[in-house]
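Section 5.1 Outputs to date
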Amino acid sequence: MLKFIIKRLLWIIPVLFGVAIIVFTILYFSPGDPALQALGDNASPEAIEAFNKDMGLDGTYFDRLVRLVTGLCKGDLGKSYKTRTPVINELVTKFKVTLHISAYAIILGIILGIFFGIISALYQNSIWDTLSTGVALFGISMPMFWQGLMLILLFSVILNWLPPSGYGTWQQMIMPVVALGVNSSATIMRTTRSSMLEVMRQDYIRTAKAKGQKFSTIVIRHALHNAMIPIITVIGLQLSALLAGSIVTEVIFSISGVGRYLVDSMTARDYAAVQGCVILIAFVSAILNLIVDIIYTFIDPRMKTMYESAGVKLNPKKLAKAAEVSNG
């Protein structure tokens, strides 16, 4: 298992370099001059040349690419063209905000999604199943930016219960967390319902019922436990999707997180900041996928056996000796 984790961690390195090279190439050939955006259209050629040299924008494509790769090896994402500060310092501060909101949102999504998914599966074709499925379809098809605007209109403008923007107090976090969590809960709910319906039809569930076990024990210990593999997969995907969804949510609610920082950097043509945001999102997504694979092993022992056997090299001499012993 340890070999599998180390191998996956090592594979993250070329993935990050590949993402960085692709993003750098796209930004390099994008129209516009970051120096003019930062200094203004009336900047002198000397000021533009000094800015490009200071920010590492001078040289050919390959010169700048080598500087980027060398910086990544040292853990340096460059300096922001706009604030003239290291990008990694700003990302650390802003990622805490995004992680805080995303954590509450995924907890809300997991609780609502699994609960209503189980209820919908246990009472299939009932009024609860119809309502849960309808709400889930509405949540999936509802654009996140529209949902955020409707929350602001209802709870801030009409009812005047919650502040429309900002971050810091629990009142300011309610609407962003709901906007992100409801969308995730809809996807988790549909997966939970489908997986639970399949498991509840299995023979071992009928056997447990015939033995007279409690209904709660059958649902939680037998059915839900064996239905968790696809649910965990969807939760892992939703965690990665929350980082992308935070871009829209943070802009709507004026939250200074990674999403808002990425949008502002794109507007200002702050290419170093854009590259840093994309690399951070790719790194977090890769780590989340690894965590999901590790969680599999705690839910399904067969997965742990598969991972362990994948790293075992069979010794022909030991196999021959084992064969002799078995043959007497």
